[in-house]
């Protein structure tokens, strides 16, 4: 933050406000304190019988790699609504949500992932503007080395494990640095 | 947002960027798009035997009412770390976390709550600067009409129900307007 969004002054420092215990963007002109907080990414693991739906990314980062539909949660929506919106935007997929399936913190990039699990209601999916391809994969056909993000890799692994047990439980974890898969 | 935090210009409009589908704070001077996303509140339901710990709020909103320790998640921490930090700040409480217990969306105020469940490791708790009192309550002694927020009321109700079943499961929901309790 270079300029105060309240008053336009460039007298913005990164220092600890009185009574606080960590640095914030402080405007010494108007006194505004600008908080910057983690962002929520919402998404879905869409399945149909023994297959899961993946999208090949048309955009950076990780263009050309495969991922589950997900994106930044927007103001005014619930996390489930956001997850379904992303599935529509990226894969034109219609999904009936079963429940929240994985919650991952990624503190080093200030993100929290909320991933739902849901069944595709039909196979009329198709790439949206941010996807090159959308496809269903059985476990053995998943392009594991080409999964775009560790959080998606973990969520997919949990899913196929749980499928074998016939029991789906919430998975939670912290991704604390860039993982080599 | 009145001024662009990138360039300091006051030429900030709230309109739909090219290729987007909803209005953002757009700077027509430097082209910056300023996204505003939901915030995450992290907290804990601390218990000890058949009692739960509540804090009487020393600050607005809902000053003088009772709540579970919770607050805005900070950059650089995991949600569990944030929940424990809040427990310390508000109640000087030490807690051993059992797991994530409730996830509530409150879209009308752009918040997502992640509430953990955890056992107090001792009874050396005490009010922090944002609390007037910190106390343990059995179910029948909880000051139900004086619980500060519907999300906390729901989480407490779930907890005492689950305690009777001897089985704690994740609770998830959406609070879509101000509820009368
Ligand atoms: Zn200012
Ligand atoms: Zn600008």
Secondary structure: elements and pairs:
The structure is a homodimer of 181-residue chains.
Chain A lengths: L11 E4 L8 E4 L5 E2 L4 E10 L2 E7 L8 E2 L2 E3 L6 H13 L3 E12 L4 E10 L10 E7 L12 H16 L5 E4 L7
The complex binds zinc ion (2 copies).
The site of one zinc ion (ZN) has 8 residues of chain B, from loops.
Pfam family, one (chains A, B): Zn_ribbon_Nudix
Protein name (chains A, B): NUDIX hydrolase
EC number (chains A, B): 3.6.-.-
Protein architecture, described:
Two copies of one chain form a homodimer. Chain A is an alpha+beta fold. The first copy, chain A, folds into two domains: 1-36, Ubiquitin Ligase Nedd4, Chain: W, CATH 2.20.70; 39-174, Alpha-Beta Complex (Nucleoside Triphosphate Pyrophosphohydrolase). Chain A has helices at 79-91, 150-165, and strands at residues 12-15, 24-27, 33-34, 39-48, 51-57, 66-67, 70-72, 95-106, 111-120, 131-137, 171-174. In chain A, strand 5 and strand 6 (66-67) form a beta hairpin. Chain A starts with 11 loop residues before the first strand and ends in a 7-residue tail after the last strand. The interface between A and B is large, with 42 and 42 residues. The complex binds zinc ion (2 copies). One zinc ion binds at residues 4, 6-7, 9, 27, 29-30, 32 of chain B. One zinc ion (ZN) is lined by residues 4, 6-7, 9, 27, 29-30, 32 of chain A.
């Amino acid at each position: 933050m270079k300029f105060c969004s309240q008053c336009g002054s460039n007298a913005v420092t990164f220092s600890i406000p009185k009574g606080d215990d960590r640095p914030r963007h402080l405007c010494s002109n108007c006194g505004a304190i600008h908080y910057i907080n983690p962002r929520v990414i919402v998404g879905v693991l869409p399945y149909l019988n023994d297959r899961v739906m993946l999208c090949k990314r048309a955009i950076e980062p990780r263009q050309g790699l495969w991922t589950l539909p997900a994106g930044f949660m927007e103001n005014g929506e619930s996390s489930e609504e956001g997850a379904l919106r992303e599935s529509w935007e990226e894969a034109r997929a219609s999904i009936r949500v079963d429940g929240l399936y994985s919650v991952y913190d990624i503190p080093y990039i200030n993100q929290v992932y909320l991933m739902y699990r849901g069944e595709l209601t039909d196979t009329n999916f198709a790439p949206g503007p941010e996807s090159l391809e959308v496809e269903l994969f059985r476990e053995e056909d998943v392009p594991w080395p080409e999964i775009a993000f560790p959080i998606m890799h973990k969520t997919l692994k949990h899913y196929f494990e749980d499928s074998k047990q016939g029991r789906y439980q919430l998975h939670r974890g912290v991704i604390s640095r860039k993982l080599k898969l």
